[in-house]
Design a protein that fits this description.
With 203 residues, the chain is an alpha/beta fold. The chain has helices spanning 21-30, 41-51, 57-68, 74-81, 90-101, 114-124, 132-135, 142-145, 152-162, 176-183, and strands at 7-10, 18-19, 85-87, 105-110, 138-141, 169-173, 188-191. The protein folds into two domains: 7-18 and 88-200, Rossmann fold (3-Layer(aba) Sandwich); 21-83, Orthogonal Bundle (DNA polymerase, domain 1), CATH 1.10.150. Helix content is 45%, strand content 14%. Helix 1 (21-30) packs antiparallel against helix 4 (74-81) and helix 2 (41-51) packs antiparallel against helix 3. The longest helix is centred in the N-terminal third of the chain and has 12 residues, at 57-68. It starts with 6 loop residues before the first strand and ends in a 12-residue tail after the last strand.
Length: 203
């Protein structure tokens, strides 16, 4: 039986945006910032703090320079970080617009930093005059909410701010642990194992 959802919540990376981790790592290597991408515990701490907004982009760049003993600019660091982001295929943007036209309320929930989000808004989401506001009613980002998936509190915040009923909602994410956390709150989920899997959903 086909479920009748009213709300669809999308993850960003590996659901809408194709990612290139290797390209990002190589870009940081070129800058002499290998310590940012290895198993260095200080680098992991910085990334974690940035991801939930405990430090700003500027503070992250300063700390990254101190950690790697480099003098690269904020702009160079941001450009290297954005090598992670490849494309949002037009087919996916068209599907979002069609789903919205059908009456679905669309939301985005992502463990995303402002560096990546700003690039997506400026470079990846625009399509035939449409911008991110034309796809989603509201966007929920970890850096701005100071919470990250799979913490139950970030899903609770989405439910509260979007005023949605969990049992009327579908969450699409590529990671199993994020789907399980949503299911624990009554939200239906679809794990997007391969990049285009969700396009085959009957919605």
């Amino acid at each position: 039986m086909k479920m009748q959802y009213k709300n669809i919540i999308f993850d960003l990376g590996n659901v809408l945006v194709k990612l290139n981790s290797l390209g990002c790592m190589n870009a940081f290597k070129v800058l002499g910032m290998e310590k940012l991408i290895d198993s260095n515990p200080e680098a992991k701490r910085l990334m974690g703090e940035l991801g939930v907004g405990l430090i700003s982009t500027e503070q992250f760049c300063d700390a990254a320079r101190n950690l790697t003993l480099t003098t690269v600019s904020n702009h160079q660091i941001i450009e290297a970080a954005n090598r992670m982001l490849v494309v949002i295929p037009d087919e996916k943007k068209r599907r979002l617009l069609k789903l919205k036209a059908k009456g679905y309320r669309l939301f985005l929930l992502s463990n995303t930093i402002d560096i990546h989000w700003d690039y997506c808004v400026e470079k990846l989401f625009p399509y035939q005059g449409h911008n991110v506001e034309d796809y989603f009613e509201k966007v929920f980002l970890s850096q701005r909410l100071h919470l990250s998936k799979p913490d139950a509190r970030i899903y609770e915040e989405v439910i509260r701010q979007a005023a949605i009923v969990p049992e009327e909602s579908l969450f699409i994410d590529d990671l199993q642990e994020n789907c399980v956390a949503a299911e624990n709150l009554g939200i239906y989920t679809f794990q997007n194992v391969e990049f285009d899997d969700w396009l085959d959903l009957e919605l």
